[in-house]
Amino acid sequence: MSSFDDYEIIQHTADIGIKVKGRTFPKAIEKSILAMSDLMLGNMKIGSSEEKEFIIEENDLEIALVSILEEVLYIFEHHKFGVSLCSVNIKNNKYRVHLKGEHYDPGEITDGTEIKAVTYHQLKIKRNPDNWIVSVIFDI
Prior knowledge:
The protein has 140 residues and is α+β, with helices and mostly antiparallel strands. The protein contains two helices and eight strands, in the order ββαβαβββββ.
């Protein structure tokens, strides 16, 4: 795995998941994006010389989280863009997601996990007094 280690892997039959904690919901989303990217890239190091941005408009937290991760997965698979840094800002149910990373050669990924889909199965978003905890299962 890369240098991003701020997540826990959830073992699941035929799937894999992540559990992250963030001080705020946007920080938990950012950590989810980086954890998913880390799983897909394996040991491949990705710089931050290129940028991509998108907006998701959604009032349901679970749908917003899954939609954001699905878009990042799409960008990873179809644009061959790996994420090394990101930021999420929320205003009026609009999630502005800013990604930094680089294009990659799929043939250079030797130990990444191929994620087919982001699922709602066992999806959890929990707000605690001092942080947010997010758990997501990926179909592999």
